[in-house]
């Protein structure tokens, strides 16, 4: 149902290949995603969804959790497509801002290179028309991954997703760094796929099942019977699979690729790579952990303890290594790793409250991470009119695709565009877990869940690391607000007058000149403002999100309790 | 169960188990040589030898179709392209010589750890085929004793069955090949997997085109 | 005992194959000569019939020379691989009803796999000789083989689809009513072109273009290892002609004789004539005649067409032949299922 619509639009997208219309494809993609959200939302109201429905002979299943996360993925990728769907800058003329005039007059620019330069018509992200297509493939993969209930379909959909991601990274092929990052990503991703496949193969060789349902049944029975053979090899198989998964989400012992890759690829792509894969794989892990967690039944080794180890390592590595970073995307990568530590902690505890906190954390983190990356992109766009006097900044590799690479580039940004700076600092505070913001509540829920189950040491580590990580978040804020900036605006742009004709019924009635005031386009600014407001004002209306996560976790636990 | 499985193999295909062990040894050797060889082309050649070996193993065990398609796909298509590209690149062997002796202890430890975990997980009927157990069996002949204990007069029976079934009448009467089996399953129960894998191939194709196409 | 029998069986196939290789070379030289108004070999034996054996003897008695920088193992392994895998293809060929070495149920598939491995021989021989000419020749040859193998296997796919079996004998027997040439005539042409290219014959013999590459991948090979290449090349020509006649002309079945039977309505089974007819209708002679005609066409093509350029060769493969074949791969199943035809031997699978 949901898949078929994607497929149809996908193929129609694939058929016509014209270079200059890439922006339209992004818009089509947005429409597709709206439609998908509608479908997924509609399906939420099916009666029997609570217990999960198997689709396609049990190869896939759907439940309210999967539907919610489908919607989340669609939403996030919709916002990401927004970045390529519209030109990032616009011209402002106070004369023609009134609604009446906006609707009834038509502007036509005299053909001019500067205009297209200013609104960045020729940016590379608008010449790659397969971008949207690849994005849709990846989304298909991750949607399938979330709702797969068979080991083979897990593998197939994870491959679909990650092949798309490798290609997406390599798509900006004029930039050397992005290609090399994509190669790194591909090689390590291939390795992790090998681990997943080995684990799946061993499970099949031992148990003869690939259906997750029957696997869960066998696993739980094994826990009760305490047959030595079964209880030893199931955790090891799952350990192998989870090693693969942890590779893909770049959790701590397997995190080496993520800073390099994030740093190498264009920021727009980074946004996508950083968020989507994590949502889908973590949701899948949620299932696996929930149904195979026998930590309370047997005293022997359980594979989830290794998840705890990974969580501990992620917390420490993400914060400590993040301290020394001066490239902003690497820093974000490390912060992602430390946040993954929190999520894995909440995941592994596996009580009602911790699952609730996990779901909430995942949702809030992907939203605020998205906001952070969009802000980076927007800052890059807004700096167009300024000349950087710092020579170091001028010869960065791959400056076209990701303009902001160093933290020092943000120096004194508050004095250039205070609103964007404020939004970024709010997001960063939310990452750090400063009380009134959304991140604080998420962290607090994780800690309370962990304390309730007696994970005191991990909680302590979590608190400490979040304090340490606050250092580097605050460092960015400091550079933005308290350092003087080295930017000067271009003289040429200052005096520039851009001629434009005002048409009414195809007649030229007026000729106006835009001066060089231009701003971020409304799509970007609206996205940023909404996301920032969500983060900021979450404390006034926390009910919706909390209720969603609460209900979902309760639903997950009901079949067990009855 | 395990013994019956082996016996079945032994009788129907007419191959001796020792051949399987032999193939195991050769493929392990090829695998090691693939890693050790300095010259990338020689290393790829060992890899191809490994593929052929494994295909032979599959055919010996009875998976004709899968074995042949293994040769056709991996040997005939994938690795020949690999070899082709490697030859075209013209890597100088002297550049590749680097000191890797320091990593050997690390590699040994990693492999041991890995096999410590995997060894517990590998299903038992596979491990019985390995050369180690086979060697130990040949020394102590525990194996035959076991067989004797479990099924009476197994050796006579074995000869008899082998003689009777060497013409494999059963096979020619009720022949249910792997192609039909795979086809029946793939297009009915697991058709969705087929679709997904075709989508993956589509992604690969689109991606290859996107990356390599000449942009104007 | 059974081992000895199987060795004898193998020899029974391999020795005639190799002898026929010798005669094919003779016939090639004679035919080319008469097409070019020359006499051709006529000194050794009657009409020069023993010329090939004399040549082989000369080559075998020569001293072999290997380049000093060559990778000696691969240098010798290459020709051996080529010859072995060219001869392995003869394993699954049925020469007459009940006359075959192996009635493998995946016979066609086996041939494909074997010919896939045979490519390595050329690649290795060319690379290991450490000579630019040999290397370029082997690269060209490999690229050509890979590309044209694609065409051959997609045509095979359609044949398999119509006959419903991968077994070579079943494919032959299912052409009793009508040979596959009629429904698949365009594909036969494509397949024939593909097989000329697959065997590196003129006009597609870019791999050993004398004017450019001395002698291609076998430049450095001399004496007995050169014989290996020589034998392998002609053995694969005969093999692929046999394959052509099996796939499209009904192999050992004689279509003409069958039509005579149906015309005369020979339902009585006692006459000697009928026995004779039934022997002729499916005898190895049919296969031999068909194959010889096809080999003659191979030689004819060599004598008639000039060599084409390498880029033309590749673009003919990828831009002309492959689209046609793929179009057929799509069209034919549609026709078959549209007309509700079941493949003949689907139950025999």
TrEMBL record, chain A:
- For the keyword Secreted, the answer is no
* NADH:quinone oxidoreductase/Mrp antiporter transmembrane domain span: 148-469
Enzyme Commission (EC) number: 7.1.1.2
Q: Could you state a single Gene Ontology molecular function term?
A: oxidoreductase activity
This protein's membrane topology, according to the annotation, is: Multi-pass membrane protein
One cellular component term (GO) for this entry is: membrane
* Sequence intervals crossing the membrane: 24-41, 53-81, 127-146, 152-172, 184-205, 233-256, 268-289, 301-324, 331-352, 358-384, 419-442, 454-475, 518-541
Where, subcellularly, is it found?
Answer: Membrane
Which enzyme class?
translocase
Annotated Pfam families: Proton_antipo_M
User: What are its GO biological-process terms?
Assistant: ATP synthesis coupled electron transport
Q: What are the alphabetically sorted keywords of the record?
A: Membrane, Mitochondrion, Oxidoreductase, Signal, Transmembrane, Transmembrane helix
PANTHER family in alphabetical order: NADH DEHYDROGENASE
Please report the name of this protein according to its UniProt entry. NADH-ubiquinone oxidoreductase chain 2
Task: Print the organism lineage.
Answer: Eukaryota, Fungi, Dikarya, Ascomycota, Pezizomycotina
UniProtKB/TrEMBL annotation, chain B:
- Tell me which EC number(s) this protein carries: 7.1.1.2
UniProt catalytic activity:
a ubiquinone + NADH + 5 H(+)(in) = a ubiquinol + NAD(+) + 4 H(+)(out)
Q: Name the enzyme's class.
A: translocase
Keyword terms, alphabetized: Electron transport, Membrane, Mitochondrion, NAD, Oxidoreductase, Respiratory chain, Translocase, Transmembrane, Transmembrane helix, Transport, Ubiquinone
Q: Per its UniProt entry, which superkingdom is the organism in?
A: Eukaryota
One Pfam family cited in the UniProt record for this chain:
Oxidored_q3
Q: Does the keyword Nucleus apply?
A: no
- Say what the protein does: Core subunit of the mitochondrial membrane respiratory chain NADH dehydrogenase (Complex I) which catalyzes electron transfer from NADH through the respiratory chain, using ubiquinone as an electron acceptor. Essential for the catalytic activity and assembly of complex I.
Recorded family membership? Belongs to the complex I subunit 6 family.
Q: What is this protein called?
A: NADH-ubiquinone oxidoreductase chain 6
Automatic annotation (TrEMBL), chain C:
EC number(s) on file: 7.1.1.2
Which Pfam families is this protein grouped with?
NADHdh
Protein name per Swiss-Prot or TrEMBL: NADH-ubiquinone oxidoreductase chain 1
The UniProt entry's sequence similarity note says:
Belongs to the complex I subunit 1 family.
Xref: InterPro entries: NADH_UbQ_OxRdtase_su1/FPO, NADH_UbQ_OxRdtase_su1_CS
User: Into which EC class is this enzyme placed?
Assistant: translocase
Species of origin: Aspergillus kawachii (White koji mold)
| The gene coding this protein | nad1
**Which is one Gene Ontology cellular component term of this protein?**
mitochondrial inner membrane
